[in-house]
Amino acid sequence: MSNRAQGTRNLFVLGQIYGSENKKDSASFFFNKIINFDKAPYKYKIHAHIELSKNAVDDSTATVRVEKMLELIKDRENRPYLAELYYHVGFLSEQKGQVNLATDYYQKSLRVKSGSIKQKTFSYERLADINFKNSQYKIANSYYDTILKISTDTLNLRFRRIKRKHKNFASLIGFENIVTKNDSIIKMASLSKEAQEAYFQKYIDNLKENDEKAAQLKLNQQAFGASFGQSSLQSNSKGKWYFYNSQSLSFGKSEFEKNWGKRKLGDNWRWSSQIELTSKKKNAVSANQKNKRYDLASYLKKIPSDPKVIDALKMNRNEALYELGLIYKEQFKDTKLAIERLERVDSLAPAEELILPINWHLYKIYALLGQELKTTKHKNIILEKYPDTKFAQVIRNPEKPLLEITPTSEIEELYKEIYHLYKDDNFEETVSKINELIPTLQNSKLIPKFELLKAYATGKYKNKEAFKIALDFVVVSHGGTEEGKRAKEILKQLDK
Question: What is the spatial distance between Cα 11 and Cα 495, in angstroms, rounded to a whole number?
């Protein structure tokens, strides 16, 4: 490396160091020095502009930096840096609250063919985070999924953080898919026979139309290819014998197979009976495949009519809606979607065992939001219909510890709530909640589950020794349970 390049690099590193320490003025001083240094290598000049964009302290500064970045984008000399430039214009736009504009620039960054894989992961991550903030969880998940598939550096902390986020979506996406699928089947089953036939006939007609368009496009492409090949042969033959010209031979072979099929060497190869037999076989297979896709009866027979099957679909849908309400409430802290899912399942005549927890969670959410009428509504349902439950006791005496034996079903609901905290990486809160709860669970068989979860959470935010102590407590206190045995196995692995 030349002295000039090394000196520029040193200035660049100094600017980055000051930037990481939030000393924006000092960082900007060094980046501007690089930009104004005529003999600085060009790549450092471009990246100095990019680093300056990160140091924008207010909207006016950000606007100036965006204008400069757009100016750089127009310069053909900067094509190798387009992906980065588009990304940082997007980032500045997002900082200014222009989310739609930011999304456009992130998409432009992704469309740059010369962009690096690492740069693409940054754009995908910003798009994922934007959709996450807007509660578009399925779209966010698809972006996180793409990052995991294309990333090459799978050991860094950023990748592991994204992997944890993606993992948190697994249950949510699964339950949402159950709701969507079952809703669709239940709705179709509720239609009259005539309405079902009309729906699928329209679907088949659209299918045929699209197939015909695709077939015509293929024919047009083949026709273009044939005419292109003929013109190539005419221009390149120049008196050369056909079989000595590899391009002509290759084209001739493909044209022969197009007309006659792949044929064995033998006499009378042009017999029409052989041609027809081959053609009939191909057409029969193709027709059979198309018939299934165009067969109205094959669609209609998939619609369930047995009341037991339909009831099972409804039950699974309702359970999925309830679980989604819990996930949105505890894991994603999205009270709007939590209310939507819980209120919906509440309106669908859910199973008896879901009614109490549904009302409990709605009571807690509305109390948090300060909506007194709805809080009172769900509170009264619990107090009037379930007066002897732990939930009713908590409502009546929120400060009083519960010394009575709590029903297992209610403890399971509490476990689910705390487990969602753990899945969302709220490890300290998980331990705190369990510490508060365990004294109230006199003689419950589920205490070992809470203790093991507490040990897992401890291991996530404390050191290895603290994790081993927590596991050892589970082994000593609950050695005969499945949780005690599991804790013992983990300790053995840690001691290796």
Answer: 48
**Phi, then psi, of 423 in degrees rounded to 5:** -65, -25
- The answer to whether 430 touches 455, Cβ cutoff 8 Å, is no
The CATH class of the 3-166 domain is mainly alpha
Structure tokens at 444: 């419950």
Instruction: Please give the class, per CATH, of domain 404-496.
Output: mainly alpha
Given pLDDT bands bounded at 50, 70 and 90, which one contains residue 369? very high
> Would you say 427 and 466 are in contact if contact means Cβ atoms under 8 Å apart?
no
How far apart CA 341 and CA 323 sit, in angstroms, is 9
Domain residue spans of the chain: 3-166, 404-496
Confidence of residue 166 (pLDDT cuts 50, 70, 90): confident
Asked if domains 3-166 and 404-496 share a fold, the reply is yes
CA atoms within 13 A on the CB side of 426: 15
**Whole-angstrom distance, CA of residue 108 vs CA of residue 126:** 13
Please tell me the predicted confidence (pLDDT) of residue 280.
Answer: 61
Q: Which tokens is 470 given?
A: 């927590």
Contacts of 345 (CB under 8 A, 6+ apart): 318, 321, 322, 325, 354, 358
Closest CA to 8 of 33, 29, 26: 33
Residue 101: which of 112, 86, 81, 85 has the closest Cα? 86
DSSP state of 330: I
Q: Give tens-digit pLDDT for 241-272.
A: 444 555 555 555 555 555 555 555 555 555 55
The whole-number pLDDT of residue 318 equals 93
Q: What gap in Å lies between CA 418 and CA 412, rounded to an integer?
A: 10
Show the tokens assigned to 396.
Answer: 């009546």
Encoded tokens for 123: 């754009």
